[in-house]
Design brief:
There is one protein chain. 23% of the residues lie in helices and 28% in strands. The protein is α+β, with helices and mostly antiparallel strands. Helix 1 (2-27) packs across helix 3.
Length: 198
Amino acid sequence: MRGRRLLVESALLVLIALVLAVALRATVAEAFRIPSASMEPQLDIGDRVVVSRLAYHLHDPRRGDIVVFPCPSRAGCAPAPKETTVVHATHEVMEAVMLREPTPEAYIKRVIALPGETVQGKAGSVWIDGHRLAEPYLPAGTVTSEFPPIRITPGHLWVMGDNRGNSSDSRVFGMIDTKTIVGRAEIRIWPPWRAAFL
């Protein structure tokens, strides 16, 4: 009898932990695996970061923030496969405890230009409203490809990868809608020897 009660209590604790993990992932923070080389050298393929879902409830996105958002349709992403309710719920749980990679593919990029600003790629650098943007997070010698002046509309952002020669970003798919942002990357937690605030 005692063994059975212990088994039931253990199963209930595991269930509560899983529900909490899913709830936290949906409302507070989630772990995100870096899928590409577009943010090297700061974020390598396979690194894991904690993404705050609450950050932009407290303030608007800021230049230099690293943000996660769904792959824009203009980037040519494949549509997510259709899932039944049970399969979807199972995947949510597995993603919450980091046993499955999130789908659909998400992008992680750095905020470069804000609403109302004009951004341009010129002379190997990014220019905002006619002034060269200081980008201390880029490796020395980084060259940004040229692109014409673009005015950022309200509710949108211009985002780019730090690895300027290998990044599908706003130069490819244009501005992103701030409403689509999942959250702001706060901490690199994996691998442990590279753990750091971003």
